[in-house]
Structures are given as C-alpha cells and as structure tokens.
Amino acid sequence: MNPDIIVVGAGLAGLTAARRLSAAGRRVRVLEARERVGGRTHTLRLPHTGLSVDVGGQWVGPNQPHVMALIHELGLEVYPTYDEGQNLALIGGKVLRYRGLIPPLPPLVLADYALLSRRFEALARTIPLDAPWTAPDAATLDAQTFDTWILKNARRPQTRALMRLYAGAVFSAAPAEMSLLHALTYTAHGGGINGHTLTRGYALQDRVLGGAGSISQRLADDLEDVQLNSPVIRVEQNGTGVTLHTPDGQHRAEHAIFAVPPTLLSGLPFDPPLPPRRAQLQQRLPMGAVIKFMAVYDRPFWRDAGLSGMAISDTGPVTVTFDNSPPQGRPGVLLGFIEGAEARTLMDADEDGRRTAALGSLAQLFGDEALTPLETVQRDWTAEPFSGGCYGALFGPGVWTGYGEALRAPVGRIHWAGAETARVWMNYMDGAIESGERVAAELLGGLG
Description:
Blueprint (H helix, E strand, L loop, with lengths): L4 E4 L3 H12 L4 E4 L11 E3 L6 E3 L4 E2 L4 H9 L4 E3 L5 E6 L2 E5 L8 H18 L13 H5 L3 H8 L3 H15 L8 H10 L3 H5 L8 E3 L4 H9 L4 E2 L6 E4 L4 E5 L2 E5 L1 E4 L11 E2 L4 H8 L6 E8 L3 H4 L2 E7 L6 E4 L8 E8 L1 H6 L4 H16 L8 E6 L18 H5 L10 E3 L12 H19 L1
Parallel strand pairs: 1-2, 1-14, 2-10, 7-17, 11-15, 14-21
Antiparallel strand pairs: 3-4, 5-9, 6-9, 7-8, 11-12, 12-13, 16-19, 16-20, 17-18, 18-19
Helix pairs in contact: 1-9, 1-15, 2-15, 3-6, 3-7, 5-7
C-alpha cells in the first residue's frame, strides 16, 4: 500500500515530521540516502577505548525548547558540558588565561569590542526571525557582507579578529562568505552572541547521554517504514500526488516532504521544474566547512592545571576547543574545531596530515602532553555527499531579500523542512526539530 506522505531525509527534521504525522494516523514512509539515520548528527563508538562520541551536532541548551522537550519525551537524559576552571586564548602568538567570554585584551580593545557587539546585537533585535527580508533596511543589510560591516565598525584589529572567530565558531565560515543580514538573522535566532557561544544557561550547556545520535535512533525506532540507502534521483508530481524515484524503484504518495540541505536539491530533476525563485534559491545556499577532531587521553590532564578545556585561537588550524570528556570524567577528550578557511586548507590532506596539524594546535594551547593521545577521531563534513558541509547553509549578499520567501513555501504537493528552514535556532538541532513540527502541522492542517 502506498503511503500518504513520503519524507526525504532521516535527520532530526524528517524524523520529527514523520513521527508527528504517524501519530496523527497518516501512513508515512521515510527515504534516507545514507546507511544510517541522524543526518548531521552521528554518534560513533571508538575502537580502542569503546567511548561513544558525537562527530556531528552534540549540544543542547535550556534556551532551546523544541529539542529539550523532545529529549524529555523520548526518555533521554542530558549532562552538563565541563566548563570549570580558566579558558585559554591564543591571540597574536601569546597564550592568555581567563574566565568568561572575552580574553584579557588591552582596555581599548575591550571597549571597542563591547561597543561593536552591542551595535551588532541591537541590529539583530530588529530582524523578524521567520522573515528576515521584511526587516527595516533589509536591502541595505543584505547588500553587504558581514566582513564589510566589521571592517567599517571595528576600530582595532584585535576586535576584528574576535568577530571573525565568532563567525568561524558559529557559522563555520568567514564573515566575508555571508551577508550582514544573514549574520544578524542567525545571531538573533540564539538571542545574541552569548546565546550561541556560552555554556551555562545557553546553547552549549548540555550534551545528550549516549550521544545526540540517540535522538534520531529513538525517533526512527517508533516508525514502521524507514528505508535506508535510498537516495532520491528524480521527482515527479501532478494534481493527485508525488512520485519519487530511487535506484531501487518508485515511491508514490499524496505529498512529499524534503528535509535535506537545500543545496543538495539543486541538481535533482523535478518534473515539472520547480518555480524559478525556488530553483535559484537552492543554487545560492552553499554549506559551511568544518572538520571536527577529537583526541582521547587517559585522563583530562588539562584539569590538573586548572583549565576548562575551552580555548580560542587566531592561529589554527584548530580555532575552538572544548573538554568533551564523558560525565564520569575519564577518559579525557579534547574537542577541536577546524572551520572555514582552515578547513578548506586541510580538506585535501589525508587523515594523518589532519591529525598531525590538529594535535600541533592542541599542543600550542595545552602543552606537549596533548601530542600523545590514546586515539583520535575526525569527521570532515565537507566530504559528506549527503550533507555537503556543516553546520548549515550560508546566505550570501542578496539571497535573503531576493529569494527568502521561497525557503518554506510549498510547491504543489512538495513541502520543505530541515534546519535551514527553521523559524527559531536555524541550523541547530532545535531548529531542525521545529521545522519538522512546522511542516507536519502544515500538512495536517491542509489534509484535515
């Protein structure tokens, strides 16, 4: 029997939509191109230590209601990110120890950064989260890059470096790769800079016990029809339904939901073709570039030195680090992010080359003990063909104002979900879940 609705993509967005629709009595089939569920979340068990680690998305926070509610609904638990002790900052070749968000830079730099960040966040508060193209001065904000604005408004080079580190850590891209309107929109989704970058009370507060991948696995376990290794290669629709073609056959339903990054759809044949605005939008949303690297040690040795494991660096290739140890504290795990231009520099290197470069960065921050881990793991998300990169799509100048209206608008019987379409917490797990709930409600409202 044909399903009522087919969901393409077994990440958090697609599985959430499928679960809500199934609970409402609809027959739902999920098609996933990968051999696993989870999308941009993926929990691995390491071969040497047996430790489970998240090589994809991992953090949730109390200011993210959709993911926290779903975790509770599924019977999962969270535990706090370790953040006790001092942080490190490698700025201008010098390692600084500090507490809080901003390293102890010269007073004129701190004053400049305070003024710049207040001005940036004031602009962000003017952006409607679900329709950035309607913001006051949207055309002006969207006509320039984030970097153009930084260069114009930051008086000190160290201030510019801090804002560029923020862009790398939050967007996995350089500020020159996105419009100012996009940077403001994304920042507004988290309630400001702190919402994206701090732990206690914010988006980085907690991790999921057993790994973030367990959310998707629990969702999939509740569904009757999830088909893996089933990439969609052609889409047809008419007045009565949608036909999705995969290498193994055809799947017919009354409606289809695509819950994948929009850029992955730009080469997918649609019959009839998508409306020009939607098709052009998909061509204009490249993904960020990030390599996630973890080094596992017998114990978290940095804690002995009074360090939290959190660090920022303007040197690279690792520009941001965290203590990613399990809740019991052993073994010790240092997590390093290689983002934006740094990721592009290493994306053609082999695993040994990336490992050597990443461990060298960790040693600059935490000492030579960081050079001898028990094991390491890395995930280059730019090499994932069914993601195209991480953390999410980048809206360059002119994209929000020229094409934003097509982001969530259904095309006939085809509907759009995914973290890029979220009305809150865009490109986060919370946003992915919100988008799945939105599109399920959209369909249930239309179907009655």
